[in-house]
Structure to design on (551 residues):
């Protein structure tokens, strides 16, 4: 999903609410409790100061924090850059380094627990789609084009959208974004975002890396980093006492030999939320669990009732459902398919996953159409205990049909969902994490290792790709200027570019989650509706938000 505007909507809303004493105390009380402001104003964490302490002063603390090899071992193989994690962020970094003439000769390695061969040969029928899909902003797509990865993406499976409809399920307030006012019908409509399966992107990045050849490149697939330690100053080798040395073992434990050991001039943690690299570097994180799950599924849609103009325009829909714990979003995929992301409580997620396909489809259609009390009633309907009888399956459908007759339909709702692809209904816990810094001597963090945010704005992967673009530029600059790529002064530029940007977007998503979790028609609901209505009616504000949303 890609609703970056929400961050700006919030910034506008928060600044008005905080500066105006006449605003409801409920709204004013609410805003400072959120992560956004403390993220900027909190006391500086020790780990954030660490990069600024000189190595000799730091060494006392380092020796107790970083583990050292207890037994003498063979000298490790030395790499310029070692990346742990072969998700979109890690592979993106490797592809970027291989694409730039300045950095393509660096000796690089990537370590990934999963089998990358499976990712390389990932293939689905054209009418089937993975349930892990991300909306890539135009700037993410430009970056992927620049490094040559987009050429390897199966674009038949990706779907651009040009319009968004967002509304509040409690108050009905609505905001719509589309570029058609600004573009002529004869020119290509401007894209809000491009829906892309994560597996399609990972496969494209792997192909891009393979196309760069295998000189100076080692990929340790199906391999886990079992430990990271500082190296040693051995008399017969280089002084690696300030360098990270990784022990790598096959994930399936098949090897009879000891683990491979590699040393990194720069170690990059692209290893997700539980990042071992972040732990090694002793970088702390702030964060919390939302006690919400993101329910995802691949859906089939009916033909739209009214043809879109200009032809081929696709729309993303998001309806906030405060009484059910978060928004439901339907994002377009090719050929009248769509991906669902429904942020809701763990109980609701368990309920949705337990439904038969027919009942699941009925509930999703209800969630975009019914009033909150009707929807809540349907979410509390009994579900089959063991066997699913036809009669039982139809209860949700029958209930929806009956209730729809008595519910006035808002304009601009998504086409009816007609099918759900087997095996695609799944849920993921939603969390917020932000590392206190992204760098440490010879270490940098990117992607989810550095930050995990609420998916309501569809920004997680885009932020990760932004990190990768910035870090690869930083490394390129260092190479061009004869600097050490792992030196803290080199890496400073990267964290300066990314930390505050990511804090702002992650914090704003957090606030939106909280703002849209206040049920009922009280002052908070009134305030957020007012904000939406004002922005929807002031072309200048709306235009500003839309330009920002391009990324
Ligand atoms: C429901 C949901 C919807 C989302 N929708 C969007 C969206 O629309 N747009 C968007 O931009 N983002 C979205 N996101 C966020 C996005 O999916 C993530 O931010 C992104 O996938 C993170 O990529 P990454 O490469 O940083 O981390 P990961 O994909 O977590 O990759 C980390 C890799 O490190 C490997 N690893 C871990 N430990 C080790 C080890 N010890 N040794 C070796 N390898 C290791 C793992 O196997 C893994 O492959 C969504 C998230 C959720 C939950």
């Amino acid at each position: 999903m890609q609703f970056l505007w929400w961050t700006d909507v919030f910034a506008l809303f928060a600044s008005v609410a905080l500066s105006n004493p006449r605003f409801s105390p409920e709204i004013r009380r609410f805003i400072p409790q959120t992560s956004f402001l403390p993220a900027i104003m909190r006391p500086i964490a020790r780990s954030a100061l660490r990069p600024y302490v000189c190595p000799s002063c730091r060494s006392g603390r380092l020796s107790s924090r970083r583990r050292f090899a207890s037994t003498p071992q063979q000298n490790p193989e030395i790499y310029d850059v070692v990346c742990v994690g072969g998700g979109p962020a890690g592979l993106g970094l490797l592809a970027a380094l291989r694409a730039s003439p300045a950095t393509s000769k660096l000796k690089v390695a990537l370590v990934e627990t999963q089998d990358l061969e499976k990712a390389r040969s990932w293939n689905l029928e054209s009418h089937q789609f993975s349930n892990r899909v991300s909306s890539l902003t135009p700037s993410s797509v430009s970056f992927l084009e620049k490094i040559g990865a987009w050429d390897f993406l199966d674009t038949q499976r990706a779907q651009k959208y040009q319009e968004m409809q967002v509304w509040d399920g409690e108050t009905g307030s609505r905001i719509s974004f589309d570029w058609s006012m600004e573009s002529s019908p004869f020119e290509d409509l401007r894209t809000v975002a491009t829906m892309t399966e994560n597996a399609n992107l990972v496969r494209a990045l792997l192909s891009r890396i393979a196309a760069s050849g295998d000189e100076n490149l080692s990929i340790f697939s199906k391999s886990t980093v079992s430990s990271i330690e500082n190296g040693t100053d051995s008399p017969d080798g280089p002084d690696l006492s300030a360098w990270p040395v990784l022990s790598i073992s096959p994930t399936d434990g098949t090897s009879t030999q000891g683990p491979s050991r590699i040393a990194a001039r720069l170690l990059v943690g692209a290893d997700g939320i539980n990042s071992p690299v972040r732990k090694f570097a002793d970088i702390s994180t702030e964060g919390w669990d939302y006690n919400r799950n993101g329910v995802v599924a691949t859906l089939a849609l009916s033909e739209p009732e009214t043809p879109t103009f200009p032809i081929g325009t696709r729309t993303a829909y998001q309806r906030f459902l405060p009484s059910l714990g978060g928004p439901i979003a339907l994002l377009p995929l090719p050929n009248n398919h769509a991906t669902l992301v429904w942020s809701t409580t763990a109980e609701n997620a368990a309920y949705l996953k337990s439904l038969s396909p027919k009942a699941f489809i009925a509930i999703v259609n209800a969630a975009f159409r019914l009033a909150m009390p009707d929807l809540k009633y349907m979410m509390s309907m009994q579900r089959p205990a063991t066997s699913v009888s036809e009669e039982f399956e139809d209860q949700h459908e029958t209930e929806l049909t009956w209730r729809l007759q008595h519910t006035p339909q808002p304009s601009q709702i998504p086409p009816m969902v007609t099918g759900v692809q087997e095996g695609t209904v799944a849920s993921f816990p939603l969390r917020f994490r932000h590392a206190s810094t992204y760098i440490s001597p010879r270490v940098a963090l990117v992607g989810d290792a550095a930050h995990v945010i609420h998916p309501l704005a569809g920004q997680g992967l885009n932020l990760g790709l932004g990190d990768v673009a910035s870090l690869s530029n930083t490394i390129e600059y260092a190479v061009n200027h004869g600097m050490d790529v792992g030196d803290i002064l080199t890496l400073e530029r990267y964290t300066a570019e990314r930390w505050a940007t990511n804090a702002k977007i992650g914090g704003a998503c957090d606030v939106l989650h909280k703002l849209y979790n206040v049920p009922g028609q009280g002052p908070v609901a009134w305030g957020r509706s007012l904000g939406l209505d004002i922005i929807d009616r002031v072309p200048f504000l709306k235009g500003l938000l839309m330009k920002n949303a391009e990324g």
About this structure: The pocket of flavin-adenine dinucleotide is lined by residues 1, 84-90, 111-114, 134-135, 198, 224-225, 270-272, 276, 294, 296, 341, 428, 447-448, 455, 458-462, 464 (CB under 6 Å). Residues 488-515 form the longest helix (28 residues). The two ends are 13 Å apart (CA to CA).
